[in-house]
Amino acid sequence: MSSVPVPASGDLAAFLAGHRRLFVLTGAGCSTASGIPDYRDADGGWKRAQPVTYQAFMGEEATRRRYWARSLVGWRRFGRALPNDAHHALRRLEEQERLTLLVTQNVDGLHQRAGSRRVVDLHGRLDQVRCMACERRFPRQDFQQRLLALNPDWAALDAADAPDGDADLDGHDFTGFAVPPCPHCGGVFKPDVVFFGENVPRERVQRAMQALDEADAMLVVGSSLMVFSGYRFAHAAARAGKPIAAVNLGRTRADPLLALKVERSCAEALAFLL
Q1: Widest CA span of the chain, in angstroms?
Q2: Active site (annotated) includes residue 123
Q3: Catalytic: which of 19, 88, 111, 123?
Q4: Helix 228-239 to helix 202-214 angle, to the nearest 10 degrees?
Q5: Contact (CB, 8 A) for 51 and 58
Q6: DSSP secondary structure of the chain
Q7: Using an 8 Å Cβ cutoff, are 271 and 247 in contact?
C-alpha cells in the first residue's frame, strides 16, 4: 500500500484547485456546527458509551424500549437541525461540477437539505423508520407522533443531545415505555440506519467505489475514519495512488496515508469555497 508523508502545513485551496474530480467522504465533524454532537475525541476514542448494536436492538425488547425512549426526546432537536457552512461549501463544489460523489457517514440528511444531490448516505437516514419484517418504511416524524401518543408522560422530558438523534436519559426506568409495532404486519421498527454490527448495503459501497475510481483525489471532511466502513475508501484511494486530504480536529486512522491534513473546524477550513 502506498503512503504519502503528512506535511507540517498545507493549503487546502491549492489541493482542491489541483484536483478537479474529487471523491468526498464526510463524517460527524461536518455536522457539529449544526448542533449534532460527534462521537470521538481528538485521539479517536469514544466520548461516550459505544452506540447500540444491531444484535442488541433486534434481540432485546428492553434495548428497543431504551433506544426509542431516548430517540423520542432527542428527535425534537435532531429533526430540526439545519445545514451549516460546511454543508453549503460542499454543495458549492457539486455546483462547480468538481465532485464524482459525496459519501456521508452521517445519518442526518443535512447535505441534501443544503442542496447537494450527488450523495450516498452510507449508513442510511434517521428520518425514516423501517419494519424489519415487511420492509415498509415510514417517515420518522410520523413515528414520533405514534410514540408520543403511546407515551404522553415522556413528552415533557428533556436531556442532553447524543450523536444518533437520541438523548442521554441514564437513570430513567424504561420498562413502561411502549413501542408501537408495524401497523401492517406487527413487525419490529428500526431506524433506517446501519447500526454497529450491521453491514452497509453492498450497492452503496459499490457505487462509492466506482466514484472513487473516477476521481483523481479524495477529500475527507470531519471524520476520524476509525470505523472501517469509511476507512476502506481511504485505503482504496491510497492503494490506487490517489492523494488524500483530510479536514479533521484530531487524529484519523488514515493519518499515514494523507497528502494534506487541516486541523480546523470543517466550516472554517472550507469557508474559502463560499
Answers
A1: 58
A2: yes
A3: 123
A4: 30
A5: no
A6: ----PPPSS--HHHHHHH-SSEEEEE-GGGTGGGT---SB-TTS-BSSSPPPBHHHHHH-HHHHHHHHHHHHHHHHHHTT----HHHHHHHHHHHTT-EEEEEE---S-HHHHTT--SEEETTEEEEEEEETTT--EEEHHHHHHHHHHH-GGGTT----B-TTS-B--TT---TT---PPPTTT---EEEEE--BTSPPPHHHHHHHHHHHHH-SEEEEES----SHHHHHHHHHHHHTT--EEEE-SS--TTGGG-SEEE-S-HHHHTGGG-
A7: no
**Integer Cα distance of 124 and 178 in angstroms:** 25
If one compares 41 and 178, the residue with the highest pLDDT of the two is 178
The model's pLDDT over 162-194, given as tens digits with 9 standing for 90+, comes to 445 555 556 567 899 999 999 999 999 999 999
What nine digits make up the cell of 263? 486541523
